[in-house]
Design goal:
The protein is of the alpha/beta class and about 180 residues long. The chain is about 20% helix and about 25% strand. It starts with a strand and ends in a 23-residue tail after the last helix.
Length: about 180
């Protein structure tokens, strides 16, 4: 039996798989898509996750050299001056989500994690000590635990009967550009 089944091979699912593998647990990641997504969904990381990636040796893989807190940041159109904060927790790393997923998938492979692409979760049956995960191809995977890391429209969340009172969309509405004016 698989220890942990993770539905979703995005940044959260892959990072969790890496962390579990480092703890001696062998997860299996199931991903609906047969190939990594090409649509740009995020353009970087903000906060303590940047320091965590550095502690795990992943910061340099993502193009960073040495993480440093940001003295200024704009949040909700409000400029924040963080120079006076004693232990400024705001770190940033500008890197496309595609590259984040690629680096995390490479690390997961190094740690022995199985990432199974083209495996769409369609159902689940909870037992006292396990969960059967039904897939679109009519096969079943059984694990001690199932974790839904499958996004805002999470199939796993819905199948488990967990409500989501928020709003989410599949379309990006922001664009970033690096511009120099001479």
């Amino acid at each position: 039996m698989i220890d942990v089944v993770i539905a979703g091979a995005g940044p959260n699912g892959l990072m969790l798989a890496c962390e579990l593998a480092l703890a001696g647990i062998r997860p299996v990641v199931l991903e609906r898509l047969t190939e990594p997504a090409t649509e740009q969904r995020a353009n970087g990381l903000v906060g303590q996750v940047v320091r965590m990636l550095d502690r795990r040796g992943l910061y340099e893989r993502l193009g960073g050299s040495s993480p440093a807190p940001q003295p200024f940041y704009v949040f909700g159109a409000l400029p924040l001056d963080l120079r006076a904060v004693a232990d400024n927790p705001l770190y940033t790393l500008l890197v496309p989500q595609q590259r984040i997923e690629q680096a995390l998938a490479e690390r997961a492979t190094e740690l022995g994690v199985q990432v199974r692409r083209g495996h769409e979760v369609t159902g689940l049956t909870q037992h006292a000590d396990a969960v059967d995960v039904m897939l679109a191809d009519a096969t079943t995977v059984t694990g001690r635990y199932l974790i839904g890391a499958d996004g805002g429209h999470s199939v796993v969340r819905k199948l488990a009967g967990i409500d989501f009172p928020g709003v989410t969309t599949d379309h990006s509405v922001s664009r970033t550009a690096h511009v120099s004016i001479r």
